[in-house]
Amino acid sequence: MAPPRILVVGAGFAGVECVRRLERRLAPGEAQITLVTPFSYQLYLPLLPQVASGVLTPQSVAVSLRRSRRHRTRIVPGGAIGVDTQAKVCVIRKITDEIVNEPYDYIVLAAGSVTRTFDIPGLLDNARGMKTLAEAAYVRDHVIAQLDLADASHDEAERASRLQFVVVGGGYAGTETAACLQRLTTSAVRHYPRLDARLIKWHLIDIAPKLMPELGDKLGQAALEVLRKRNIEVSLGVSIAEAGPEQVTFTDGRVLPCRTLIWTAGVAASPLIATLGAETVRGRLAVTPQLNLPGADGVFSLGDAAAVPDLVKGDGAVCPPTAQHAMRQGRVLADNLIASLRHQPLRDYVHKDLGLVVDLGGKDAVSKPLGIELRGLPAQAVARGYHWSALRTNVAKTRVMTNWMLNAVAGDDFVRTGFQSRKPATLRDFEYTDVYLTPEQIKEHTAATVIRH
Fold it and tell me: Are 148 and 341 in contact (CB under 8 A)?
């Protein structure tokens, strides 16, 4: 008799933590484990702003899933584009564009999230995101390119527009992105004698009335003061009305000449979740505290893709889409999946949030570990200590620590690789949100598999 087939979709914090625990705790031959991911690495998302600013190299935050030979998980290079929970088949588009059906006995949906966008004219064609490793690398190249192009231009209007940068989203990703990239341009402009440093202007805007409200009023205000001290213009209660290739229109009527719009205004669950036709909570799959999907045999979900009940907060709250929750959910889900295989009781996911850290670059940071409010160097030590300890391998830890030390000693570098220099890349080009199937298309793809079974 063939062992049960476990299919894990997604190699983020949740998916990888689940797979590694399954590998450690399942007996040899007890189950077959398959991991579906377009890239054979786990990306440490919270450090992407430091990749964009050049403090960290891209490979230091991408932990390879193929380094160890002792792991027995089969990796399928591709992305899940539909799931038929009745037929127990997942439709996968491989990186070769071949579409295949992958039968399963148990499926773990850890598909994560995508950048949340709105119906704003020009947004998808002119904005850049900060959700993938390629986007972070591209944004870095693009920002440095604006300095080069402004330096080469004899048109004062063009020069001014290339030196205006807009970041939308006052959460952790947007705030850290604006802070880190502002430090990069401030350091770089010293090496451009023809450019007036006063023309470089960073704007951080958010429709919310407060910056990072989860931090509380004091730390949120402290972060705001740091940004404004660095001459970053923060506009709250404001968003984008229209995004053009050479200008951005704000909802308060301002029109800003600008060639760089970075969109970090939140995330939404992977479009894969919509293909299940199951109940959702704000787009995230509604699961039980045991992380399984009610009414669907062998279906589990976690991380950004799932609305996991927060039993600590209660009152119908769900866990926020953070790395610390995803990692801990991965361990609980693996244990529950093994319990299902062995016909044992499942346990609830319960975890109290350990706090928040925001690295603003240099000596600036705000942190709230275990409810203790910190700012400056102590907050920076906590923020980097937390990120460093959360990296999964010693190789990744060594690379990140070496990068931090090198940056502290040698300062920033301003090397531009020329990545897609002749083809401007936008939100459309990195996250492939238009590849998912409709329920009808899924049924067509899975019909042959059902007949064979």
Answer: no
The three-state secondary structure class of 382 is: helix
Cα gap 394→397, rounded to integer Å: 5
> 3-state DSSP call for residue 34?
strand
Whether the CB-CB separation of 149 and 162 falls below 8 Å is answered with: yes
Cβ atoms within 10 Å of 263's Cβ, excluding its own = 27
Give every residue of the chain whose pLDDT is below 70, as ranges: 68-71, 420-422, 448-453
Nearest to 63 by CA among 43, 45, 33, 84: 43
Strand partners, 306: 285
Question: CA geometry: angle at 152 spanning 150 and 155, to 5°?
Answer: 65
273, 280 Cβ separation under 8 angstroms: yes
Residue/partner pairs of 363-367 with CB below 8 Å, 24 or more apart: 364/179, 364/226, 366/215, 366/219, 366/222, 366/223, 366/226, 367/219
What is the model's pTM? 0.93
Q: Closest Cα partner for 288 from 351, 353, 348, 329?
A: 348
Reported as a single tens digit per residue, the pLDDT across 375-430 is 999 999 999 999 999 998 999 999 999 999 999 998 888 888 877 666 777 787 88
Looking only at the bridges linking them, the beta strands covering 113-115 and 267-269 are antiparallel
Q: Which residue has the tokens 């064979």?
A: 452
Query: Cα angle at 119 between 117 and 123, to 5 degrees?
Result: 65
Q: Is the dihedral of CA 81, 76, 48, 202 positive or negative?
A: negative
| Exposure string over 55-79, b if 16+ CB within 10 A, otherwise e | bbbeebbbbebeeeeebebebbebb
